[in-house]
Write a structure and sequence with these properties.
It is a single chain. The chain has 188 residues and is an alpha/beta fold. It has a single domain, classed as Rossmann fold, CATH 3.40.50. 24% of the residues lie in helices and 22% in strands. Strands 3-2-1-6-9-10-11 form a 7-stranded mixed beta sheet, with helices on both faces. It is globular. This is 5-formyltetrahydrofolate cyclo-ligase. It comes from Antarcticibacterium flavum. Its EC number is 6.3.3.2.
């Protein structure tokens, strides 16, 4: 079932015009400002794969920079499905890997347990806070290594599914998910 949902939402993204994607990305960034997540220090942000029409995280990056937060970016290790996290500094070099993912080329490594808030990429999510990504488990592995208090914020261009079947014990649920029109709160 997750594979059907992946195909559905990849196809829906493909239909978005560049203008609509930019507009929705800005709406999501503005909605994030309403969340109670801004008093922390370390924020993990993914950089968008523009070819896959992912939400443009540049407006969120500007918000974090404007608030003088520590921004953490990750580099994917496809051998282990692990994310290695680095502090974004003025000297950080960003380069796309062979899968089109923009990544830092080294720098000051930040341990997962030090990160306070994680903005989580996804294809879709449900009303219980479960998400479907690309299926490699990078974020579930990464989030399971974060502190138990880490705040997990999904970013979605589309509204929630009612229920995602086939959720595994290793699937880490979100605390919030923000779409262009809705803030979902799963912290109960």
């Amino acid at each position: 079932m997750k594979s059907k949902l992946r195909k559905k939402y990849i196809a829906l993204r493909e239909e978005l015009s560049g203008e609509k994607l930019e507009e929705q990305s800005l709406e999501i960034a503005n909605k994030l400002l309403k969340l109670p997540i801004w008093e922390y220090e370390f924020y993990h942000l993914f950089l968008s794969i523009s070819e896959k029409k992912e939400i443009d995280t540049e407006p969120i990056l500007h918000i974090l920079q404007g608030m003088d937060k520590n921004i953490v970016l990750s580099k994917s290790d496809f051998e282990t499905n692990q994310l290695h996290n680095y502090l974004l500094t003025d000297t950080t070099t960003i380069k796309k890997n062979r899968w089109g993912i923009p990544e830092p080329q080294g720098g000051i490594e930040v341990p997962a347990h030090q990160i306070d808030v994680v903005f989580v990429p996804l294809l879709t999510f449900d009303r219980q806070g479960h998400r479907v990504g690309y299926g490699k488990g990078f974020y579930d592995i990464f989030l399971s290594g974060c502190s138990k208090d880490v705040i997990k914020v999904g970013l979605s261009l589309f509204e929630a599914e009612d229920n995602i079947p086939g959720i595994l014990e290793s699937d880490v649920p979100l605390d919030y998910c923000v779409t262009p029109s809705t803030i979902y709160n799963f912290k109960k």
